[in-house]
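fyi for ur records
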Amino acid sequence: MKQESIQVFNQAHVRRAFDRAADRYEEFAVLQNEVCKRLLEKLEIVKITPEFILDAGAGTGKAIPTLFERYKKAQIVALDLSENMLDKSARHGGLFRSPHLVCADIENLPFADDSFDLIFSSLSMQWCNDLNAALLEARRVLKPGGLFVFSTFGPDTLKELRYSWSKVDDSHHVNQFIDMHDIGDALLQDGFAEPVMEAEVMTVTYHSVDEIMHDLKAIGANVTANTPHKKQINKGLTGKSVLQTVRQAYESFRRGDVLPATYEIVYGHAWKPESVDKTSRMIGQQFVEIKSRV
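which gave:
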C-alpha cells in the first residue's frame, strides 16, 4: 500500500541548509552523533561480512571510520544530498582506502540493482518525501540476503517546540515524523524480510528555547516542509512577538534551570529476501517491536 505524504520538502532548500551547516555541523550535532554511534553498536551482533556498503545520508561521515575498522575488506560508498557534507566525509580515509563519494537523493539511488551487501542510514530518512520510494530503492540496490539498517525520528520528536509554535498559529513550524509502526508496516509491504523496529526517547536540555532553535539551524535541521493546508503566521503578530509567544509557551516545560527537547529515536533493520518466494511469504507477518527510554 502506498503511504500518502503529509508534508513535502523542497530538496533544494534541504541541500542548501546542509551545505551551509557542513563546516560547523560536528560542533552542534551531539545527539546525531550519539544516535549514529548507537546504530553502529547494533551492527555488532549481526554476523555479516559485506564487500560493498552504502552509507545513505552519510553527512560528515561519522560512521565511516567504524565501518572501515569493522569490515576491513569492504568498499564504502558515502551518499548525501549535500556536496559540502560529502567533502567532510572524504576526510575519513587514507591513501589506500577511502570512501567513494556520490551526491544523490536516497529516494532515487544512482546504482544498479543488487549492488550492496549492507545499507547503513542514520537520521536521513526523515527528509524523504516518499518513504516507500526510499525503502523500495534500498531494497532494489541491496543484494539478495543484504541488510538495511537505519535510524530516524519518531512523532514525539521536538514535541515541546511543536506545542509552543501551536500557540502562534495553526501552521506546521516543526516537521512531522512517521510512527515506528508505520515504518515497520512499510518495510513488510515493500518486500523486506524479518524487520525489527526499536524506539527510545532521548532528551537534550537547554537553558532557553532560543538555544534549541539555534542548534537546529546550526546543523541544517531548521528546514520545514510544505503542508497541504499551510497557513501564515497571524499577521497581527510581529517577529518579536511571535518569538516571545513561543518562549512563553515553552516555559511550561521548564524543570529547574533547564528546558527539555525530546527526541524519539526509531531504529530498524530488515533483510532483502534471498528469493522471490520468501518475499511473498512476508505478506501478513508483523515486525518485531522493542521499546526503551533514556
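Confidence is low (pLDDT under 50) at residues 1-5, 278-285, 290-294. thats all i got for now
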